[in-house]
Amino acid sequence: MKTISLKLLVLIMLIVLAVISIWLERKDDERAVSEMLGEPAATLANPAGTEELWQEALAAGFADLDHL
Fold first, then answer.
1. Domains in the chain, number
2. Nearest 5°: phi and psi at 30?
3. What is the pLDDT of residues 40-68, one digit of tens each?
4. How buried is 12 (Cβ within 10 angstroms: 0-12 exposed, 13-18 middle, 19+ buried)?
5. Average pLDDT across the chain, whole number
6. Is the dihedral of CA 24, 30, 33, 37 positive or negative?
7. CA 25 to CA 67: how far, in whole Å?
8. Domain that residue 42 falls in
9. Looking at the predicted structure, is the pLDDT value of residue 6 above 80?
10. Are 44 and 50 in contact (CB under 8 A)?
11. What is the DSSP string of 1-55?
């Protein structure tokens, strides 16, 4: 009887560990996706700032071409 309850306890613990592991993995995946989706949304929230950044990048790119 003792060995059956011990085996059952070990089985329950393994199942609990598996469930926690899967939950943590999904939580990490959701966080990664939300971070990926959050960055472009933050950039688009300020279109004037992005326009200025594009102008600076284009000016820097053309400035590099002037020496050719």
1. 1
2. -65, -40
3. 544 455 566 677 777 777 777 665 555 54
4. exposed
5. 75
6. negative
7. 51
8. 2-65
9. yes
10. yes
11. -HHHHHHHHHHHHHHHHHHHHHHHHHHHHHHHHHHHHHHHHHHHT-HHHHHHHHH
